Amino acid sequence: EEMQTLLRSAPWKDFASSPGVWAMMLAHAAKNWELYNLLAWTPTFFSEQYGLNVKESAAFSVLPSVCGMVGGLTAGNAADYMLSRYATMSDDGEGNADDDEASATLTMVEKRTRIRKLFQSIALLGPATCLYLLSTNPEQASTAQILLGGAVGLQAFDAAGFGAATQEKAGERWAGLLYALTSLPGVMVGSVSVSVTGRLLDQMADAEGNYGSGWALVFQSNAAICVVGALAFLFLYDSKKEFD
Description:
The protein is an all-alpha fold. It has eleven helices and no strands.
């Protein structure tokens, strides 16, 4: 009953009309399109492109997950440091004159907005670059592994992008609901992407069932979707609290 009351009183119209909410939703969807594809299709890619068996493909698929963990921790700590540095400069006036003058022209909301946009850009444009390079079909499996590791590691920087944004856009009452609202479409898009990629690869397969050039198209399309998500976040997001 309490949950029903909460849902009935939620500011659904304000959610739907907020550019910031759309920014988080689109960035999350773009991230999931890329990430779900990598998680689902990486073993197949290594097996077909480089002739690796199941065991070897699985081993090559481990590095991206490790990179994702390291990327998320790095981004979170770096963003916290930058925010605390901004706060310290505002409180005690430390820093050189140029820094103080520039800082004075920015509110804390604007500073947080810059940080969220910076890390979300890294989280989508970084993987886009890695995936585009991967579409050239590197000769060595180790090169492909590094590029995939870079893509997954950099996408984890969204921990300091849209991952932290809901707590700034909404108060304690609505932050959880807002995260669910912006996550659900992303999960659905990510799930659909795996099926779409499978169908695309099947259409591109040769007579022997090898996907061949289909991989290049998959990686390029994933890169393009990441760029679109990054642009949406850059143009639409700000850290101003809207939902208390």
